[in-house]
C-alpha cells in the first residue's frame, strides 16, 4: 500500500519498483506510516547521511553537509489531503529526531512547479539553501534545510 501510494504521487516523488523501494526502506533512518480503520493515510521516509543512497539530491546535500537526515519522500492519501496528515507526519519526525540529527534536508520541485509544497515547507521553518537542476535539464528543485 505504501509503494502504491508513492507511485500515485509522481511527479512530486519519483515512481519506484518494489526492489527500489525495498532498498530505500533498508537504508532508512526514519520511516513512519499513518493509518486509520479505512487504510493508509500517508507516510514519511528519511535516510541518514553517510549511506550509499543513489539519489543525486541526497548526494548534493552530502557534498555540503556532514550530518543530516534526508527526507526522501512523503505522501498523503488523496482522500485526506489538506486534513493535517502531512503536518502530523512532519511534527512527529521533528519531535522524534530532534537531538539525534542537527537538521532535516529535502528538496521540492520548482520545475515542474510545486508552489503549495514550497509554501508548506517554509511555514514549517525550512530554509532554502540552493537550487539543483537535473542533469537531463528536465527538472529543477529547491533544496531546503530545517535545523532541529
What would you say this structure looks like, in words?
This protein has 148 residues and is an alpha+beta fold. 30% of the residues lie in helices and 33% in strands. It is built from 5 helices and 6 strands; from the N terminus they run ααββαβαβαββ. It has helices at 2-7, 18-27, 56-62, 85-97, 115-123, and strands spanning 30-36, 39-48, 69-76, 103-111, 127-133, 140-147. It has a 6-stranded mixed beta sheet with strand order 1-2-3-4-6-5, with helices on both faces. A hairpin with a 2-residue loop joins strand 1 and strand 2. The chain is globular. It starts with a helix and ends with a strand. The model has no long low-confidence stretch (mean pLDDT 95).
Rg estimate, integer Å: 14 Å
> Helix count, per DSSP?
5
- Sequence of secondary-structure elements: HHEEHEHEHEE
Q: What is the strand arrangement across the widest sheet?
A: 1-2-3-4-6-5
Tertiary shape: globular
Mean pLDDT comes to 95
Tell me about the largest β-sheet. 6 strands, mixed
Helix percent band: 25-40%
Distance between the termini: 30 Å
What's the total number of strands? 6
How much of the sequence lies in strands comes to 25-35%
Poorly predicted runs: none
Structural class: alpha+beta
